[in-house]
Amino acid sequence: MKSRRIEPFIDEATIADTVEQLAARIAEDFAGEPLLLLCILSGSFIFTADLARALARHQIEVEVDFMKVSSYEGEESSGTVKVEFDMERSIFQRNVLIVEDIIDTGRTLEHLLRLLQTRQPRELRLCCLLDKPSRRINGLNAHYVGITIDDLFVVGYGLDYMHKLRELPHIGIMSTEE
Ligand code: 5GP
């Protein structure tokens, strides 16, 4: 019978350092300006909480809003994003930072960025904790990337395996053993 094992991959201290470094860069770019953090549910909830508090330590005034989306390919279109749950706040003429746990193919975010641009934000940027560039199917790049990783399935710090393991304080690699 196959059993699943979680190998330690990125420890809590490294995650905390990464969040702090991201916050420092973002705070430099948005110094003196309010910023709306758009947490992409569900995987980003812990990262967003830590990033919001790190930004506050850098004197950035933040608001946090939430959105849940999934991507799908239409029969004839190149695909679009299905909004399962939309944000409450207007982003018209506002500085918005999309906060994402991990970018894989980039499909979801490509569609989401297109949708959000139609709402005419002042500035729209993307921040991800983890990036798997080898999996990308488009040219999507985040403005702020925490850690670049290989093509691995990771869990913890908000990232799930079948709705579980989000509560792990570190990030692990899921492996299957006989
Ligand atoms: P994309 O549209 O970039 O292919 O999808 C990104 C989404 O896929 C992420 O927000 C995340 O929910 C999920 N995902 C991609 N890679 C991983 C991974 O290694 N672990 C987990 N738990 N989810 C992942």
Automatic annotation (TrEMBL):
Catalytic activities: GMP + diphosphate = guanine + 5-phospho-alpha-D-ribose 1-diphosphate; IMP + diphosphate = hypoxanthine + 5-phospho-alpha-D-ribose 1-diphosphate
GO MF terms held by the record: hypoxanthine phosphoribosyltransferase activity; magnesium ion binding; nucleotide binding
Membrane-spanning parts: none
Enzyme Commission number(s) from the entry: 2.4.2.8
Needed cofactors: Mg(2+)
GO cellular component, one term: cytosol
Pfam family, one: Pribosyltran
Pathway info: Purine metabolism; IMP biosynthesis via salvage pathway; IMP from hypoxanthine: step 1/1
GO biological process assignments: GMP salvage; guanine salvage; hypoxanthine metabolic process; IMP salvage; purine ribonucleoside salvage
Family from the record: Belongs to the purine/pyrimidine phosphoribosyltransferase family.
Protein name: Hypoxanthine phosphoribosyltransferase
